[in-house]
Amino acid sequence: MPKAAGPAANDKTASIEDIIEGLGGVGYIASRRIATAIFIAQNLNKPILVEGSAGVGKTELAISTAQWLGLPLIRMQCYEGLDESKALYEWKYGKQLLYTQLLKDKMGDTLAGADGLDEAMERLHGFGDLFFSESFLEPRPLLKALRQENGAVLLIDEIDKSDEEFEAFLLEVLSAFQVSIPEIGTIKATVPPIVFLTSNNVREMGDALKRRCLHLFIPLPDAKLEQRIVAARVPGVEDKLKRQLVSFVQMLREQDLKKLPSISETIDWARVLMLLHVDSLDVDLVRDTLNVLLKFEQDIDGVRREIPEIVRKASQA
Amino acid sequence: MQTQLEQFLTALRGMEVHVSPAEAIDAHRTVATIGYGDRTLLKDALCAALAKTADEVRRFDDCFDMFFSRDEFHDRSAGRDLEDLPEVELPLAQLLLSGTTSELAQAMEQAAVAAGASNIRYATQRGLLTRRILDQMGLRDLEALIGELKKGTDAPTATLAGRLEEGRTYLFEEARQYINRQFELYARAAGEQLREEFLRKTGLFALQQRDFDRMRKIVRRMARRLATRYDRRRKHTKRGVLDVRRTLRRSMAHDGIPFDTVWKQTKIERPKIVVICDVSQSVAAAAQFLLLFLYSLNEVIATLRAFAFSSHLVEVSDLLEDHPVERAIPAIMEKIGFRSTDYGRSLADFDEEFMDSVDRKTTIIILGDGRSNNSDPRIDLMRRLHDRSKSVIWLNPEPETFWGTGDSEMLRYRTFCHIARTCSTIEDLERIIDDVLKSYY
């Protein structure tokens, strides 16, 4: 069993409260469930599979964790067609080519004075075999994360966008924190990285992958939590405006919408309202800035009529 | 405590939360790290380690709450003044007279483990297991004691006997509820599985309306299984054959050295499937389920065209596409169902409007009994279908011995089918569709 992540990380993740506080310090308001997941992940050395609809702060969680722990963040964006040469490692073909050229030139010197083919072969074997060695290895994100001296935060973003075959490559990395390279051997992590995988549920993940991960589902936040998040992310927002806009968004989420506004949209909207120097919501303003919250024309059309009513209710909050 | 965690895992499996041995080990390690002290922490931590989808999280929460709800023992006014009552030796009697509810609960839990209550599978076992728990707790001795006390004449003894009888009734009730909870935890899923197993093997004609929801689940799962199996195969590439032309072209960037090799790939065509489903009176009982299957198939195969017919034929692809299953099926039945069948007319309709779309890549599946009410079966059209398509598969809910009897034209149609088979259960259906899809890959 590899030992837990670096000493710095260990101190900071000693208890759930420490984690909540630490993440709060870098502006990420974590619920208890989130903090518990990180705590368990640290203790069991397991990756966390984070699910939830777009914009609830899945990627942000990894970024904030890296920032809080002072570890480098290594990010790998998944997409269809991603393969091991882009995720794990690649050989530096150009340098290998140069090396063979170099070898050709030197060959004459090395083999000069050799009697017959046998001795020439003997000398050739004595030559260090550099062609497939670590110096010609181009590390890609996964390998890079394993080779960080002090540990790292590895974010594998939108894993559901990758192909099923790619999941299989990940299994070795995620369960044993090692990479097997046929030509060289196995490279093991000095300090296992903290791994976050995020998924938008475009497709169901394989059981093998799921079994190796802890599962964390981040739901849309309730009003209280959302207010705290807005306060942390948009410093300087008026208390009254904050309450109104959060309650407006909360009510908007009860409508039949194609894409419900999530936390990132709330934060964007709060920023927009700040820029406009608004101190309370009114109907025209909401109408003009609704495109920040809703990203589909149908959704905007659909709620347009409801806006005065929702604004009225929200102003009472 | 370890046994308790194991039991909890068993209960989780009962609720269809998948817990593998590896995850069980995780659970134990989790508990070892955080301990049992803080219940919310325990719940959150175990949830992260065990539940792997949003759906499983919900079931996990339910199960956790139910499993650790030991406090559900009903309070009772125990511990009333006992000074003036005579001493009793029997531990159970003492417990009933002066014990707290949690002491009682603990005693019952121990007895339940000894009686093997968590092995419960069927509702009919409840009575027996309740009895066993009570026996383990020493009910026989208690009853003997009560009998003994009743013979006594003085007032305190009589009160004591009364108290103990009260206690016994209470105990009965709690044991019964305890077993009910165990049944909910461990057996519900097993019963559900049994029922599904049964439904898969029941003939389509014998299925009841009340099974519709369950069938929907089964059929959907089956369709999904088929879909994933063939989706995966679609991407299969043929390894080992070098595409020389493209490799040479790519090697130009590397001074003619072929670093980037290109391999030939086999392209696999998407299945093109046309399903024609009989929804007339004679197959009315089975039609719903055939449509249900059609609906699920439509969800997983993108290029499916669906038709339904009785007296004539209509395309129902859009209906299946746009509506949820609860509405799509009645809508189709209303539109076209329950009339008397006319195979000839329906084939003619198909020929007129849709024959163009049938080519050498198309598989045609016909679901029907081939009973055409003595109208012209239009065998010529059937021949044309046969000649144009990749294959024609006829699935008949009737057993083969009935084919050709009465107004059944099945034997004549059969000549022009690549495959004609009896398909009377959902299981048959899955096997046949599997064969069809196989032919594409």
Order of helices and strands of chain A: HHHEHEHEHHEHEHEEEHEHHHHHH
Give the second-level CATH assignment, the architecture of the largest domain in chain A. 3-Layer(aba) Sandwich
Tally of alpha and pi helices of chain B: 18
Please describe the biggest sheet of chain A, giving its number of strands, its sense, and whether it closes into a barrel.
5 strands, parallel
The shape of chain B is elongated
Q: How many beta-strand elements of chain B?
A: 6
CATH topological fold name of the largest domain in chain A: Rossmann fold
Rg of chain A over CA atoms, rounded to whole Å, is: 26 Å
| Name of the CATH homologous superfamily of the largest domain in chain B | von Willebrand factor, type A domain
Q: Tell the overall outline of chain A.
A: elongated
Give a written overview of the molecule.
The complex is a heterodimer of chains A (317) and B (441). The model of chain A is unreliable at 1-8 (pLDDT under 50). In chain A, strand 6 and strand 7 (185-188) form a beta hairpin. In chain A, helix 11 (223-233) packs across helix 13 (263-275). Chain A has three domains: 7-87 and 140-217, P-loop containing nucleotide triphosphate hydrolases (Rossmann fold); 93-135, no CATH class; 223-315. With 317 residues, chain A is α/β, with parallel strands linked by helices. The relative contact order of chain A is 0.13. Chain A has 16 helices and nine strands. Chain B contains 18 helices and six strands. The mean pLDDT of chain B is 79. The radius of gyration of chain B is 33 Å and the shape is elongated. Chain B has helices at 2-14, 21-34, 39-50, 54-67, 91-98, 101-115, 126-137, 139-151, 155-201, 212-234, 244-251, 284-300, 317-322, 325-336, 343-354, 379-388, 410-414, 426-438, and strands spanning 272-278, 304-309, 313-315, 362-367, 391-396, 419-422. In chain B, strand 1, helix 12 and strand 2 form a beta-alpha-beta unit. Chain B is an alpha/beta fold. Chain B has four domains: 2-68; 91-197, no CATH class; 227-235 and 270-438, von Willebrand factor, type A domain (Rossmann fold), CATH 3.40.50.410; 236-268, no CATH class. The interface between A and B is medium-sized, with 26 and 27 residues.
